[in-house]
Amino acid sequence: MTQIGNKTLLIAISALLTVGIAFFGIIMLISETNSANKPLIYDERIDVIAKQFEWTFKYEKPVQVGDSTFYNTTYNMYVEVGKTYLLNITSIDVEHGFSVPDLNIKVDAIPGKYNTITLKITEKGRYTIKCFHYCGFGHETMVGEILAS
Ligand SMILES: [Cu+2]
């Protein structure tokens, strides 16, 4: 092949690669934008509010615990197996961390901000909640449970 032929081939390959990478980038950008805008689908919402040194759960629909009905509970969160919940996690004082090790959940609870996840428990049981940010003297007492029935 001639010198000019090699050069043309090289330019053609470079142009093809550049267009290919740009195309791939655009596809990635579009798919990311779509997933960010996708609404979260859930059955009920629970606001998870952290403060030194307790967790409060505010339910969109009241929960029945024994003979009592609650809109809010502290330390323990009550959920139904198979339902999908939207958890809005925040703090009203310092930074905390909402973690449920057995469910692989670890979300920052930050004052003035809501971090959102969905939760669906498929097995009845009790799941320990812990704070994973050191939030002051008493941090280690900031525990609770998710009771799924
Ligand atoms: Cu804490």
Give the SSE map.
Blueprint: H1 3-37, E1 44-51, E2 54-65, E3 68-74, E4 76-79, E5 84-91, E6 96-100, E7 105-109, E8 115-120, E9 125-131, E10 143-148
Parallel strand pairs: 1-5, 4-10
Antiparallel strand pairs: 1-2, 2-3, 5-8, 6-7, 6-9, 9-10
The structure holds copper (II) ion (CU).
Copper (II) ion (CU) is lined by residues 50, 96, 131, 133, 135, 139, 142.
Written account of the structure:
- The chain starts with a helix and ends with a strand.
- The strands form two sheets. It has a five-stranded mixed beta sheet with strand order 3-2-1-5-8, with no helix packed on it.
- It has two domains: 1-38; 44-148, Cupredoxins -  blue copper proteins (Immunoglobulin-like, Sandwich), CATH 2.60.40.420.
- With 149 residues, the protein is an alpha+beta fold.
- The longest helix has 35 residues, at 3-37.
- The protein has one helix and ten strands; from the N terminus they run αββββββββββ.
- It is elongated.
